[in-house]
Amino acid sequence: MITFLALLCLLALFMVFRMPIAFAMGLVGFIGLALQLGWRPAFAVLERIFFDSSSSFILVAIPLFILMAELLTSGDVTRRAIHACQCWIGHVKGGLAMATVASSVLLAALVGSSTASTAAMAASAFPEMRNHNYADRLAAAVVSVGGTLAVVVPPSIVLVVYGVLTETSIGQLFIAGIVPGLLTASGLALVIKIIATRTDQAPKGDPFQLGKAVKASRHVIPMGLLMVGVIGAIYGGVASPSEAAALGVMGSLIIVLVQRSITFVGLSTSVSAAIRATVMIVAIVTCSAIFANYLAFTRITHALLEFASTTDLPRAAILAFMVLILLVMGMFMDQLAILSLAMPLAFPTAMALGYDPVWFGIVVTKTVEIGLLTPPLGLNAYVASAQTGVALGTIFRGIVPFLLMELVVLVVLLCFPEITLWLPSLMLG
After folding, report:
1. Contact (Cβ atoms closer than 8 angstroms) between residue 159 and residue 245
2. Which of 104, 132, 369, 423 is an S-S bond match for 151, by CB 3.0 to 4.6 Å?
3. Where is it located (predicted)?
4. Residue pair 68/74 in contact by the 8 Å Cβ criterion
5. Residue 428 pLDDT > 60, yes or no?
């Protein structure tokens, strides 16, 4: 136990000095294995872990979904989606902010990354709201919270990583994220409506013009059909997540080529960005496996499982404690770091308590989504501040009512698992 605590301190020290979380976990895990087993057996375990983790077929879905998102972004499809939503509902009081939320749902289904979604919305939706005299506090907050939808709405990269780390069906996770994602978006729109009604932070936009709205939607329809096709293929059991991701890449490439909205430079940039993101995620998955193996050899995981199965505490209390820990971690760490650190212990404990792995995955992603909005880290707020020039303090004050709504949605998902599990239970394959 003393060695374990010393290694945890070493891990914390590495993180303080800003060593990438993947390398920090991998190094600490390897040192722990070497102290536990000896250097030669530790190298043998390391070799097996690297092969088993990096050769998993489901990892193919990660670069494909990222490439699909990069192609559509480089092809200007995301900006057109935002403009179309603004044309349809931007004319009502608070409409531009609600259009930003609707656009964020579409972007979530495109990019799968909360920070990328926030950056895109800050570059396109925020200037439009500022031009229509929206308060910077509200406009920047909406951009920040809208970006978090990419954590839950499929094809979320966070859900893919959770599925790989816990060996949970990624197809079921994707389908399970639909209703919670739409529920969160509805809650955000409700908060905006209340703010627009009670304050002057969200005036009306331009008058509605049917012809302009229809024209703006023409370029978005193919993207919508692509998203329905990808998710529908998974839902109907026609294709696995990896196969659906391949179809998504092919479809997105066809769309941007037919619309002549991508250049060779844009195509090269998309491929490079997908490779960089994939290498980072695979490194996190592999190094997390090293750390998890160390925990297994020390029997820390076994001790936690035994405690969870024999303690007199209600299982709801243990779950609430785990959720609270994840929320606190979200204040200081990004979502992939939280998954890689917490899942080797939290997931086996949740399974020992009898919770559904798909439902638990949505709960976990919802907690890390909230962490993207909470200070002192609040990664989405930092991205929005950097893109818009609005002070961080102003953004965090604007986020408060949306953060309360996010917590309400989390409690609802905890109390009513059927909300999450209804759609996966209807899957054909």
Report:
1. no
2. 369
3. Cell inner membrane
4. no
5. no
